[in-house]
């Protein structure tokens, strides 16, 4: 498979997962991973169902317990997936200064006061082109603000929008603004495979955007299943690795203490 590391995984420390971290570690070892990053939701929008759920002290204690149990077989990274980091810079800074996280994913789940993941409200108020356009305009602002290590699921809105007629090039200008900011900040682009199991058969993002990122000088790719249950680990990995190779990448990126390091894409897991 080429990448023995899944850098986007949730457990019960996220409001939308019931997975036990030790079960996920066992599954990771069983499917041949040597490295895993737990990236729990940090939802700072007060109206988000996950608001206030994340307990960083308890999370770190569980990470350390799993490192003790599985550390000889699995490298366990402590991470967070922060929603809308550009809107909560003080809260994010305080969190990241308080705990030794290995990586921080920045993600867009809300546009303005509306969540994009709970159809139909956001989509009822906008024709599809505007739903996508507003999302990518906000994404560009998020990326320009920086302050995180990996951009999560760049075009995840395609998973939720009721209109399936999504053509990425229609939003090229805003997406390129986002990608340019990633390149300038040295932020990695994630290939998120959670969208592959839906009707779309596309990762987020898929080939066109990954190619733009590469052409614009982007050098860091991560691979994330966004698993919320152990059995979803590494789902869609063949697609993701093939995509990375097709777009000219020979390496993938991992993190230690928020410092990136590159590893070669290899044959076999
Ligand atoms: Zn997300
Ligand atoms: Zn996630």
Task: Draw up the topology in text.
Blueprint (H helix, E strand, L loop, with lengths): L4 E5 L11 H10 L4 E8 L13 H15 L4 E9 L5 H10 L4 E5 L2 E2 L2 E2 L5 H4 L3 H18 L4 E2 L5 H4 L11 H14 L2 E5 L14 H9 L5 E4 L12 H10 L4 E6 L2 E6 L5
Parallel strand pairs: 1-2, 2-3, 3-4, 4-7, 7-8, 8-9
Antiparallel strand pairs: 5-6, 10-11
Helix pairs in contact: 1-2, 5-7
Describe the structure.
The chain is an alpha/beta fold and 269 residues long. It has a single domain (5-264), classed as Metal-dependent hydrolases (TIM Barrel, Alpha-Beta Barrel). Helix content is 35%, strand content 20%. The protein has 9 helices and 11 strands. It has a 7-stranded parallel sheet with strand order 1-2-3-4-7-8-9. The protein has a two-stranded antiparallel ribbon with strand order 5-6. The protein is globular. One zinc ion (ZN) binds at residues 8, 10, 81, 226. One zinc ion (ZN) is lined by residues 81, 107, 109, 152-153.
């Amino acid at each position: 498979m080429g990448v023995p590391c899944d850098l986007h995984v949730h457990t019960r420390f996220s409001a939308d997962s019931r997975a036990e971290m030790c079960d996920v570690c066992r599954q990771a070892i069983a499917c041949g991973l040597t490295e895993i990053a737990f990236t729990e939701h940090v939802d700072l929008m007060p109206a988000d169902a996950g608001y206030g759920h994340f307990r960083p002290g308890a999370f770190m204690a569980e990470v350390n317990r799993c490192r003790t149990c599985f550390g000889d077989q699995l490298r366990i990274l402590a991470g967070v997936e922060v929603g809308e980091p550009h809107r909560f810079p003080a809260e994010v800074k305080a969190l990241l200064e308080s705990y030794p996280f290995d990586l921080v994913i920045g993600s867009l789940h809300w546009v303005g006061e509306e969540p994009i993941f709970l159809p139909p409200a956001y989509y009822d108020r906008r024709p599809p082109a505007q739903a996508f356009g507003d999302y990518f305009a906000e994404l560009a602002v998020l990326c320009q603000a920086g302050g995180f290590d990996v951009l999560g699921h760049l075009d995840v809105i395609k998973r939720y929008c009721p209109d399936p007629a999504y053509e990425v090039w229609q939003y090229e200008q805003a997406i390129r603004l986002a990608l340019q900011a990633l390149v300038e900040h040295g932020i990695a682009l994630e290939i998120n495979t959670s969208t592959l199991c839906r009707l779309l058969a596309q990762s987020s993002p898929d080939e066109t955007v990954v190619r733009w990122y590469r052409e614009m000088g982007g050098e860091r790719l991560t691979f994330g299943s966004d698993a919320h249950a152990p059995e979803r680990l590494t789902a869609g990995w063949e697609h993701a690795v093939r995509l990375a190779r097709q777009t000219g990448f020979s390496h993938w990126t991992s993190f230690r203490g928020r410092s990136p390091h590159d590893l070669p894409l290899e044959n076999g897991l």
